[in-house]
Structure formats: C-alpha cells, structure tokens
Specification:
Largest sheet: 5 strands, mixed
Strand content: 35-45%
Number of helices: 0
Strand order of the largest sheet: 14-20-19-16-17
Length: 290
C-alpha cells in the first residue's frame, strides 16, 4: 500500500489568496443535515444540488459517500479508513459550511452531508470548490495523530476518479439554476469577499471591530471584538492554505468583548482570524513569529 497523497477534490489553487479562505459555520453536528445513502463513492451529481439565490438567505445540502478504496494514477491502490474535512475553499462570499459530524470526521465508506449556509451577493454562476482534508490510511480506531496532512492532491485526476468534483451555484432571483459545466474550459467563478456587505471584516472595511494585540504573536495575544448580539462567538484561525489550525468558542455580549489567543505550537507564518457572531463575521490577518 502506497502513501496517500490527498488534498482531495475540486480546486482553484491557493493562488486565489484570501478569496479562497474557508468559512466554517462552527456548528457541525448530527442536527445540521441528514445523510442520505448514495450508491457510489464521492459526491452526488452536481446538477441535483440547489442554487443560492443572490441576496437571499438560504441553505444548500450536498450528499456524499466517503471513499474506501482508491486507485490513484501514479500512486496505486490506497485504503481510506477515516477522512477529516478541515477547510472548503472558494465559496461564494457570505457562505459558510458545516457537516453532520461534530468533528467533521468520516469513516471509509460512510455516508455524510455538507450544509452550506448564508446570504451571498457574489457573482452569479458556478463555483468550483476545493476541500482540504486529512486522511488516515492505517487500520484501527480513529487516531488524529495518524492523519496525513498531504502536500499533493487529486486535482490532476478529477477526470479519472469519478464524483470528486464539488460545486456551489448562485443564481438571480428570477433566473434558473443552470446545468453545471464540469469541463476544463468551464467559466468557474472565484469567491470574492468584497462583494458582500457583511463578510470578512478586513475586506469589507469593518476591521476596526476586531483587534489582535500584538499583531506579531510570539506566545499569546489579546483579541478584542464588537458583538451585535448576546451569543456564542465562533473563532477560527486559518493558515494561507485555508486550513483551520486553531478554534475556540467564547460567550459574547453586545458591545466590546475580549479573549486570549494562545499560540500553542502553531508554526511561524501569516494567518487569518475569523470571528462569527450570529450573522456577523469579521476577520483580521496577523503573524506568528518566534
């Protein structure tokens, strides 16, 4: 059995930068959506997936069955015992994601679902998404320490391994949810946070509501943000590949709130912190340094 090189599924590579970031909803659980058994591994037919209507709040659920055995061209056969979804890149602005598993971990062959939620005013059209995953290819119980954080991907083999393409679709209020073009020449849109009035704070000019002091973090930093309602605040830190490296839930009240960010072994580099409170999301870049 050869080592699995897996950042599976569809993709616009991270040259898209911050536009390709992941926005987890932070509420993955069995109540998010109900998995419907599929006959085949991979995602359901993209044409069976609903569209978001621009400017209208909505939910779209996508069904999938995790792979068990894969034959990857140039690598050979591999067995997937578990898969964890870390990030979903190139979503239309204003849309976040969650799954029916609290830890976003699925056993090989297990049916699952992803729920996309929110309001977008991004471009009308289709968005080819990329899932950033970790996989366990050693037998036994689920072990986070055994997960592979692979450098490669299946993008070159999308046309060889079936059902590995995932799309989000946006339509006008009076428009039709059109057929998905899965060809290499398709007009795939790029998620643009600046297109939404509420979204990533740093891009939508609401960054003053989120402060990270100091902005170059050696061990800890004080994080301050303004909430618009009394609610749980879901905090996520993602690296430049959109992978979530740190998360926390804090109880927020209307007005100014604060908490401590602890580095805890996070590698040096540029990161994005996103705080979601109700329907408000703000983000800010910061650096982790020695």
């Amino acid at each position: 059995m050869k080592k699995l090189r897996l950042t599976i599924l569809p993709a616009l590579l991270l040259c898209l930068g911050v536009n390709a970031q992941s926005l987890p909803c932070g509420n993955s659980s069995s109540s998010v959506c109900t998995a419907v058994p599929l006959a085949q591994n991979g995602f359901e037919n993209p044409d069976s997936i609903d569209c978001f209507v621009t400017g209208v709040a909505g939910d779209v659920v996508v069904q999938f069955k995790n792979f068990t055995n894969l034959v990857i061209p140039g690598t050979g056969p591999v067995t997937v015992y578990y898969m964890r979804i870390d990030s979903i890149l190139n979503l239309p602005c204003g849309i976040c994601w969650s799954t029916n598993k609290a830890n976003n971990v699925f056993a090989g062959g297990e049916d699952g679902c992803i729920k996309f939620t929110g309001t977008t005013t991004d471009q009308v059209g289709q968005y080819k998404l990329k899932l950033v995953l970790k996989a366990q290819i050693t037998d036994g119980n689920y072990n986070p320490q055994a997960l592979i954080d692979p450098p490669g991907g299946l993008e070159p083999y999308e046309n060889t391994i079936p059902n590995t393409k995932l799309y989000a679709k946006v339509k006008d209020a009076n428009g039709a949810c059109v057929h998905v073009d899965t060809s290499a020449s398709a007009n795939n849109k790029v998620g643009n946070p600046a297109a939404c009035q509420t979204g990533i704070g740093e891009i939508s000019n609401t960054v003053n509501s989120l402060k990270i002091v100091p902005s170059h973090v050696n061990s800890t930093a004080n994080v301050q943000f303004v909430a618009t309602e009394n609610s749980e605040a879901n905090v996520f830190v993602t690296d430049i590949s959109g992978r979530t490296v740190w998360s926390k839930t804090v109880n927020s009240t209307v007005g100014e709130n604060s908490f401590t960010f602890e580095r805890n072994g996070i590698a040096n580099g540029l990161y994005l912190m996103t705080i979601s409170v109700g329907k408000t999301q703000v983000s800010k870049r910061f650096n982790v340094v020695e």
